[in-house]
Amino acid sequence: MLINKFEIKSKRVKGLCFHPTKPWILVSLHNGIIQLFDYRVGVIIEKFSDHEGPVRSVDFHRTQPLFTSAGDDQKIRVWDYNKKKCLFILSGHIDYIRMVKFHHELPWIISTSDDQTIRLWNWQNRSNIAVLTGHTHYVMSAEFHPEDNLILSSSLDNKVYVWDYSELKEKHQKYAGDSKKTDLMYTGTEVEVKHICEGHEKGVNFACFHPSRGLIASGADDKLIKLWRMSGSRAWELDTLKGHQNNVSCVAFHPKLDVLVSNSEDRTMKVWDLNARTCIYTLKKDTERFWVLAMHPTSNYFACGYDKGMSVFKLESERFDHARVGNQLFYVKNKVLMVEDLTNMESLPQANLEIEGKAVLNNQPCSLNYNHFDTSNHDVILNYKGDLNLSILVLMNKTLDKTSTPIQRKIESSKGAVFIAKEKICVLSKSRNLVIYLFNGRNKKIEWNTKHTLQGIFQATIGKVLLKSNNDVLLFDIAARKVVAEVQFPKITRVFWSPNMSHVALFSKDQIMICTKNLKPLCIVKETTKIKSGCFDNENGFIYSTYSHIKYLLVSDKMSEDSTSSNISGIFKATKSPVYVSGFVNGIVFYINREGKVSRETVNTSEYELKVALNKRKINEVIQILKRGQLSGNSVIQYLKEENCADIALLFEKDPKNRFSLALSSGNIQEAYKNAAEIQEKETYLQLSEQSMLQGYANVAEKSYQSLKAFNKLSFFYATQGCTSKLKRMQSIAMEMNNKNDIFENSILLGNVRDRVKLLMQSSQIALAYTTAKAHNLTDLIPLIEQEIQNRDLELVDNYTEQVEQRARKAKALLPCRPVFIEDESFTTANWPHTMLLQSNLQDTVDETETQDTFYDATATGDSSGQGISDLLEDIKEDETKDNLVGEEAAHGDDMDLLAGDLDGEDNWQDNDGIDLDEDLLGELEEDEVGADPDLADLDNEINQKEEDEVFIPPTRSNDPLLQLVSNSMVPAHHVAIGNFKEALNLLRKQIGLSNPKPLRSIFTFVHTNSKISLPTLPKFPSINSFLRTADGKNPVGIIDHEFLKKIYKEGFSEVTKGHFNEALVSFQKCLQHAVLAVATTTDEEQEIKKLINNCVEYIIAMRIELKRRDKDLTTTTIQNLELVCLMTICRMHPSHKFLALKNAMTLCYKAQNFITAAHLARSILDLESKGVFSSKPELVTQYKKYYAAFQKKGSNKVKLSFNIEEFAKIEEANGFVCCGSLTPFPETLLGNRTSGGFYKYSSSGTPEKSNIYKGSCKCPFSGAIYGPDFQGKVCEISGLTEIGADALGLCILDQRED
C-alpha cells in the first residue's frame, strides 16, 4: 500500500518538514546538521551546520524563502535558504528546545522547551511576544490550528492543552504598526487555556490538529493513541487506538484521506482508518526506532525519520490509468469507472466497481486495458495489485447509455490480464502461469516450458502479449506458444500502443523506449525525473508527461537507438504539478490531474511541427513553418544544420558569419564567397578555398587564394591546372617582390632551369648552380659558373668539376608534370561541370505538378546514367523563380527559358560577385611599397574576361541509341527506365488522368535504378553506365511484368487469409500502383495484367468495407453494420475468401434476427460447393443446409436494409453496385436507370465484357472504379492516383510500334 518515493541513510533524524510548493524536504539530524533535499530527483541541495548539538525541529515558512530551526543549543535560528545563511537568532529558552513552527498568516514563531514553557516570537521585529506557562514537565510539541485562533501543546505531564490566542492576535493587528506602544502591547495574559485533555497515563510525546475536522490526536509513552473531539467549550476523549508495543513518538493526520499515521519506538509505523478506527497497514524496521513524522500540506506525500535515516512515502498511487478510444476516455475515479467525452468535456459514470479493498483508500487500478479487437462493444480490464491481486472485466454496450447495466466479472489471484482477441483475455496467474479466459466463463491453462520468470503482462497485438521477465520484455505468440521477439528493457512499468498498433512505447521509471510492433528498438530516451504517462500522436510522435513537463518524442522507422535526444525530443510546456497525458489532437493536450479531473490545454506546436516535417523530409512544410516567424534563434538554425538542412536555415539567417558557415555546410559555394567578401577574415578565406577545391569551384578557389595573397598556393594551383601562362605571371610577381623562395618554386613548376641556376648563383649556392647546369647541359652557363669558381678558389676547381661530373651522370631532370592535351588554356581553371536541375528536389516537383509540368527529366540534362536521381533526392534548395511562374505560361513554359533563368541565378559566377584582383591584390601590394607589374594587370584582366565569357553548358545527352528509340514510345515505363520522368508523367496524364503522382515517386526511382547496368572498363578508369534492354535492343527491359505484379498480389491474398485487412489493403493498392509502370510483351500477358488490375479493385473495395466496419472511431448503427458486412460478400474474391465473408455476414444477420437475409447468405454459401470450397470438409454442406432450412422457417427480418436482398444476392461484383467513395449502394432512384456504360471490365475468366453503370455516375479512367456524381474531379480512392471522371486514352503497357 505504501509507495517509497525517496530514502536516505544518515544519523538519527529528529526533525522533518516539507516545503509547501517545491519538491523539497528539510531534515534535521542528531549531529547538528540540517539537510535540504529534492525528493523528486533524489539529490541533496544544501547543508546548514551552525547549530551546536542535536537539531530537534525545523519548519518552512509558507510564503517567504525562510525556514526556522531549534535544538539542544537553546537557540532558535531563522534562515534564508536562497542566501544560504542564518539571518538571526532568537534566544530566551533556558533548556533544550523541542519544537518550532511558523504561523500560517502572522509573523510569529511558536517554540516549546524542556524549561516547561511555550514561547511566541515575532520574527519580523525579533521579539518574544508571549510566554505560556502551565505545563509541569517538558513541553514536547506545539502547533497552531490551521483555521482557528488555537494552539495545541503536549507535555510529559500526561496532558494536552488547547490555548486560545484571540486576544493576542487582536492586539497584534491593532498595535503592530505603532512602534511607540510596542512595549505596552503584551501583558502576558492574552493567551488563555481553553481545553485540557487528560487521559494518558504517561507523558504525551506529540499532539496534532486535524486539518479540517474538530479532532485532536495524541501519542504517548503509554503506547496509546487517543482521539479527542473539540466542540465549542468542550473537549472530550473520542476513542483510543491500540497496537503499538512501545512509546508512541509521533502522530499525523493525512490532509486528504480519513487516515491517521503514527510511529513508535517499537520500530513500527502504522496507518489507521479513522472511520473504522482500525490499523490498515504496518511498516516495520528490524533495528531502527521511529522518531518523527511530517505530512505534506497539500499533496499525498508524508515522511518519517528513524535512527539511520528517513523515507518519503505515498499512501497509494495517484496515477489515473486510462484508455482513449476516439473522443472517449475511460478511467477510474473514486472506485467508479468513468467515461469522459473529450468533445464537450463531460463525464459519465458507467459502473460502481465491486472491489473489497480498504474503504478509506481510493484503490486505483494499476492498469486499465481496452479491448481494441471488438468494435461492437466497450470492454475494459482493470488490474489491481497489492492486497487485492485481482482483475475485473467490465463489459459495456457500444452506446454507453443508461438502459443497460455494465457486466462485471472478477478474476481472482491475478497478477494482470489483457485482451488477446474479441472475446478472449490472457491472465498471468499468481503462480506465474498464463491462462486463457473466454467471455463465456471457460478458461484454459497454457502449457509453456520456459526458463523465463514472468513478472508482468501487458497488452500487445491480436493473439500476442508482452511479458516482463527480469530485465527483458518478451513478445509471446499465444497460438505458437513461443517468444517471437524480445528486447532488453529493465524495470518496465507500462506500455502505450499507437492507434494502428504499429509502434509501442515501453515505460520504466525514468526511461522510454520506442519500438516497432515486433519489438525492434527505434530510440530510447532517459529523463532525470519520473515519467508519468503518454500517448501517440498518430504516427508522428509520442507525447508524454514527466513530474514537471509535457514533452514530445518523434517517431520514425528510420530512427536508431543512437539518435540524439535533443534532435528527436522537446518540451511543450512546464506544469505546476504532475499530470497524466491521455490524448493529443491538433495541438490540444488532454490530461488527467492528480485529483482525477480531465482537462485540456492548447500548446505551442511550432517546434514539434518543424521537427515532424523535417523527420518526414517535407521541406515545403518546413519553410512555411519558419516563415510564420514563431520560431527563431540560434537553436533552430543549429537544429536545421544538424538535420542536413543548412540551405533552409540560410534563407532565414542574417548574420554574415553564420550565413558563411551555413553556406559551406550546404555546399553553396557562391553564397559562401559573397559572405566571405563581406567578412574579410583570413580564416574565412582559408575554409572557402579548401571547400572550393573539394567541390570543383576553381574560380572561387583562385579568388580566395588571391584575397589571402597566398602566392605559393596560387602557383601550385595554376601548375595543377596546367595554366602555364598564369604561372609565368606568378613568376614575374615573385621577381618583382624579390621573393626568392617563390621564384625558386615557380621555376621548378615551370621547368625553367635557367632561372633556377641564376637564382642559385645570386644566392651564392655555386655548387648547386654548377650541378644543375651540368645535369641539364646548359653549355652557355657552365663556363660562367666555372669562371666564378676559379675566381673564388683556384685550388678547388678541378676537385669541384670532377665531383659534379660524377653526380651529373646519375642525375635526373626535375621537371613538372604537364597535362597531356589542353585545347584551350582558359578551360584549365573553369569550374567542374555542375548539372543544372529545373527543380531542386523530387518533393517540390511532385507538389507543383498541378501548376508546372516538371517531374525531373534525367535525359534533359544529359544525365542518362541516372546520377542525378541521388542528387535530386538529397539536394534541398527552394526555387525562388517558381512564384513568378503562374497560369498556363508557367505550367507549360519553355524548358530552355527556365534553364536560362537558372543559369543567370546564384548557381553561376558573375563578374560583380568576384574579388577584383586589380583592387584587392595589386592595391595591397602597392601599400607594401611594391611596384605594380603589368603582367599582373594582364593576369587580372584575363581572369575577369574569362568569367564574363564563361557560361556553363550542361553535359550533352548520352549517345546511347536506346534514348532515341524509345522517344516515341507510348509505354510510360519505357520513359521512366531511361530517366525521362517528365515524358512519363505527361503520358500518364493523357492515358489514365494522373492527378496525384506522389505515390509513384518511389516506383519511378525503383524502375529507373533497376533498369541500369554498370560495365567495367580499364583499370583506374570509370565504369560505363548503360541500360538493360530487350533482345532486339529496341526497348528497355520491363522491370515490372505480370509475374512481378502477381507476387505482390499474392502477398495481399495471403494477408486476407490471415485476417490482416490493413496489410492486405496496402498490398493490393501497391499492386495497382505498380501496374501503372507494367510492361507486357504479348497480348495474352497484357490481358492477364488488366485482369489482375480488376481483381485488385474488387479486393480493395472489400478491404475498405471491412475496415470501415471495424473502425473504432466511427459509431455505426446495427443497420449500418449489417449493410457493410453484407456488401463485402458481393465483392468478387477467391471462393475461400468469399466463403469467409458470407459466413461472417450470415452469423451477424442471425444474431440481429434478420433471418431472411441470413437465408439468402446461407444459400450463397451452398452455391460455393461447386467451386470446391467444401472438398476438405464435405460434412459442412449438411450443416449449412440445416442453417438454411432453419432461417427459412423463421422467415422474418427484424432490421430493414437499404437494398433489396433478392437483387443483392444475384450481384457478382461490388464495383458498379457500390459507390467506391462512400462505400454505400447507389441510391434507389438510380436502380431503374442503368444504362450501357461504354467501358470494358474483365471477368474472372479474363475476357473483356461490357459493364452496366448508373446514369450520373463517374468512373476512374485507370481502375474502372465507379463513383457517385459527388466524387467527380476528386482523386480516386481505389488507386490514389487518378482524377475521377477524367477523359483518358487508357493505359498502354504493350509497345505496338511498327519496326
How would you describe this structure to a colleague?
The chain has 1299 residues and is of the alpha+beta class. Helix content is 30%, strand content 28%. It is built from 36 helices and 61 strands. The strands form 17 sheets. Strands 1-28-27-26 form a four-stranded antiparallel sheet, with no helix packed on it. Helix 5 (634-642) runs antiparallel to helix 6, helix 12 (724-737) runs antiparallel to helix 13 (740-750) and helix 28 (1042-1058) packs antiparallel against helix 29. It is flat. Mean pLDDT is 80; it is low at 835-940, 942-958 and 1229-1252. Residues 877-1205, 1253-1294 form the Coatomer alpha subunit C-terminal domain. This is Beta'-coat protein.
Summarize the structure.
With 1299 residues, the chain is an alpha+beta fold. 30% of the residues lie in helices and 28% in strands. It is built from 36 helices and 61 strands.
